[in-house]
DUF4199 domain-containing protein
Amino acid sequence: MNKYSVEIKWAFIFGVAYLIWMLLEKSLGYHSIKAVQEPIFNLLFTLISFVIYFLALKEKKTKIYQNEMEWKHGFASGIVLSFFTTIITTTVVFITFSLISPTFFENAIELADNKELAQINFNLPVFVKNNIFDKLSFGVVFTALISFMIKSK
């Protein structure tokens, strides 16, 4: 069995969940008439992220560590998971705003009160950079907390 098979599996689950979330955002109008509110709505995905991280680390504890996992093992596993989810979700962000909702940034800028500020914040490079920062930072925080919650020793 691959050393990181659990993390890779859950990173792909995370990626699929994030893609579904993006499709939900689009269907609810957060890529068109509510585009400027999308970053705030997207924060709700943080709850789903936490659950996915919890399930991933719980599986790692059960299947790899036979229910005897120290905090440092959970933390290390979560860091690897964070790395993989960051790569996959960055791809999802690129696909979403290039193929699924190619007019998102135009819509957000058009709807914004401050067009100059919107042009700075609503573009693909900024969204990719923010995704990388968010997924890594939330991943580290979630990992530390969940590893503490489920540690055996």
Observations:
- The radius of gyration is 17 Å.
- The mean pLDDT is 96.
- Residues 71-100 form the longest helix (30 residues).
